[in-house]
Amino acid sequence: MVMDTFTFFHGNALSNRLFLTEEQGCSNINISCAVTDKEALLKLKDGFVDGGGRLSTWKSEADCCEWNGVVCSNLTGHVIKLDLVHYGDSEELRGNIDSSLCDLRHLTYLYLDGNNFEGSKIPECIGSLGQLRELTISGASIGGTIPRGLQNLSNLQTLDLSDNPFKSGPFPDFSRFSNLDFIAASCNFGGHFLSWLKYQRELHALDISDASISDSIPQWLWLSSFNYLNLSHNKLYGELPKSILKFYHYVLDLSFNNLSSPIPDLPTSAMALVLSNSMFSGTLSFICATAQGSVYQLDISCNFLSGKLPDCWGQLPYLAVLRLENNHFYGAIPNSIGTLNNLQIIHLNNNNLSGNLPSSMNSSYLQFIDFGQNNLTGKLPSWTGQYLHNLVGLRLQANRLHGSIPTNLCNLPHLQILDLSKNYITGNIPHCFGNLNAMSNMTSISQGISYDILGSFTTSSFTDKATLAWKGEYVEYSKNLRFMKTIDLSCNHLTREIPNSIAALVALASLNLSRNHLKGSIPIEMGQMEKSESLDLSYNSLSGEIPISFSSLSFLSILNLAFNNSSGKIPTGTQLQSFNASSYTRNQGLCGPPLTERCPGDGSSDLNPNAHDIDTDGDDNLISFAFYVSMALGFITGFWGVCGTLILKKSWRHSFCHFFENMYNWIYVQVAILKAKIERRFHKD
Fold it and tell me: What is the CATH number of the domain that holds 41?
């Protein structure tokens, strides 16, 4: 689970925004926009490139208080709020932030997040906006250094400059500020924590992720009353204190650091704890030691944790996201995990877990299950299709599961990622696979595998990520996971024919049925799967011809039909001939490009009247033999016709040698004369 977006609303700030919306409506009736503010806004507009027409209402003849994104005071007509956040529903603003922004002397709220200012700087004069309380310009491609003038904004409460490519430079000193409530800045802090942070008693949210901090976490930071603390993607080292129980963090993200030691008991107030991609060791004993709390998300993936999974998950009844993958856990998956009724996302993959899958998974909210790359045994569970009607992804890859594929999987309308590869699954591919709506509906797109955490002071959104086999490689997907539609049943013991109904999965992007015992012909209807980008049917016992309809699969970039019993001519078409011959190899009866084997009837029948005289490479054996015989006779005749005569007839031999001696002398004289002329000309110059 990775943090995707974070939005912080302090209670007062939220009420201010609601109040300002109402005030804007009144201002249109009571008073017009101040002339100086309108002029400043028009200059600001001139610096932007507005390809989406978001500023189309910004016209000189109109009242600027009625312009999009502008809010005025109903008492003075001055602009007090400018909201130009890009929400993705239109084209982002580009260009430069003009210094005329600083002429809006009464500006209190400024939001420019999500645009693309192409590396331009924040105007140095921004420190003159003394009324500014909230300034957010996150993810807006702002460059340069952070202006030191920000430290003059004594009324500032919220500052968000995160996700921008700032250059290294000193961060403004806010030690004199007393009202700061939220700070988010991804920039170079010079390797250490800023000392003035410990004096910010009103600070409730701090995001200094990806700030190039290489330091241990100071003790004073743990004594602060943060609701939200994000120190991820730094180089922090050391241990977490055992007194973490006393902290009041709703969201704590320490991922992608070098922190070590066992994980202490969780604070009961914690809602999200993200400790992934670090060096934590020990066991999960803290789960059972934790008093029943309100943890919604627990991500301690990619560490050095070991031991058995505890059987006390009932201590976390609100848990929605559980990520324990890429550790060294062993033993069985406890049944208490199946009792988590609010669980939405669970990743236990790439450990050394064994035994059967849980007897049940009771949460009807489950969207993604990944138990892959373990040593799990037993049959595929029937609960997947009985209760999990919101399931989008199911990965049980690389285990020791056996039995047949349960047909109730076909009851999952949102399933679009199914990976059962590298197991011991037998039986046939269910005919009802054509009923998987998310893969058969071209317009069906998942709303995203994500989860929102709503707190009293914070709203945090987390987007799931998963590693999938894609075009022969393992690729990690996060934001694009919602677009993936793939089935992988490779490396099992599936038998019988490929059902014709699988062709109904017209939205499927990747299908891998390789290394099974499938037989029969390839369904002709599979040519209708026009969204296919990867199709692997290799290492089976498929027979018959390759369907002509395959030539219409224009998106296909990976095709492997090798090691089967296919026959006939490879359908002609730019797409199928563009693949390497290895895609079709070891099919005894297959012929035509890109293979070297020619099909019967190819070429002119007049030139090849005896079909039995043509070998597998298309060469005529009789012509090839005559060619080599004539070449040998020609060499013998030519060589002895010249050399033999010179050996036997003395007068001819003398004449031949005399000719070459005269030719040598003539060439030598000509070269000497030419050399002399060049030397004379050189001396004259």
Answer: 3.80.10.10
